[in-house]
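Notes, Module 5: Reading structure tokens.

Key idea: the token line is not a picture. It is a compressed description, and you learn to read it the same way you learned to read a sequence, by spotting repeated patterns. We will look at two proteins. The first is printed below with its tokens.
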Amino acid sequence: MHQKRYSIATTADANYYVPLYVMLLSLFQSNKKSCFDVYVLYDGINTYQKNELETLAAQYNSSIKWLSFNTIDDTNTYRTNLPQYYYRIFLPELLPPSISTILYLDSDLLVLKDISALLNTDVSGFSIMGVKDMSRYNMQRLNIPEEYDYINAGVLLFNITEWRTLNYTQQLVNNIKTNTDKYWLYDQDAINSLLYKSIGYLHPCWNMLTSFYLVSKKTLRKRYNTDADSLLNDPAIVHFATSVKPWHFMSTHPYKPVFINYLSQTPYLNFAEKGSMKMIFAKVIHRIKHRSFKLIQ
């Protein structure tokens, strides 16, 4: 069977090594008709872990390419003291010149479907494409005009050619140094604040945010103009985009069992947190409050 080859980018540090492993496993297993060159912008991942991920990728006719955070700090043009939360914006400068577009995936997500349609999306005319965030409060905070919108940065299609031509990375570095205090969500805020006029919007199935489950179906339909049931029950990519992750005991995310199933296929099942009696009680109360909140919307 002929497999089409695609480029993917992601980032992870030592704390997110296991979620990265799980994310890649879900990507490979859900896309057996494709193979991937995965560019990992990393920090603190050791040689054993690198070899482990390279072996995993090879089982699916894919490869891992390592991009070190240290490379960013050592470059003369973009020498900066920015924290790693901003390093996503350096990807266009670190990727090989032959790459003109790339799909970026956060490490705290699951790929549950064939994403070839997403990978083949035409990005011409846009600097970057993503899924609109659930909340619009960030627009007001960043002075983005009402006729535009604000995207979540967990799943992004980069128009690498345009980024390089218009030198967006340097523009963003300059912008961040001036506006660091107002960027609460780091490079996500920076990208939206600077590039909102050239951002394209993807269907929300490509980045199912945790916040989608925290609101009513009516609110979801109004925000995304799409069928809420199919969106909630049949997403292509599930993004655990809150501080409580599916490996935390307190997580009540509907796709936590799916995450644990993938985790059980790795050497790291014990990565999932075990709960005390106090935590079990608190989790029950949390579920009750969540359901009550959705009923009154």
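Here is the second protein, with the sequence above and the tokens below, as before.
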Amino acid sequence: MIAIEIPDNANCEPVDLRVFHDLERALPARRVRLERGPGGAAWYDVTGWMAEGRPCAAWVQKVDDSGDGTAFLLHGGDAGLRLQPAGRSAAWRLEDPAQWGAPFLIVGERDDVMMDGADG
């Protein structure tokens, strides 16, 4: 079981307690493919984020998705996740307008997540 509760923080909106039934162990994640806007799907670097303002590991884990089968949960630190377009050399920081925060993400396909240490 994975319990996620994100308090009010500078990175993303808070989330009341959410509980997910894990089906596999968590693996470190470094990129996720998302559809944001009219350009279609693109890759984004992802890191976990801590409330004190520093990055930490981001994790992906196969979970039960209520009556819809299975999905993949991306989760990070006590202040959620932080994302930016893939391949940028910018440091992780709240003040960067090309970055944004999310409490967690649910992704439908394993191919939409690149594990840490994978090529690409």
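Summary for the second protein:
- The chain has one domain: 2-115.
- The mean pLDDT is 92.
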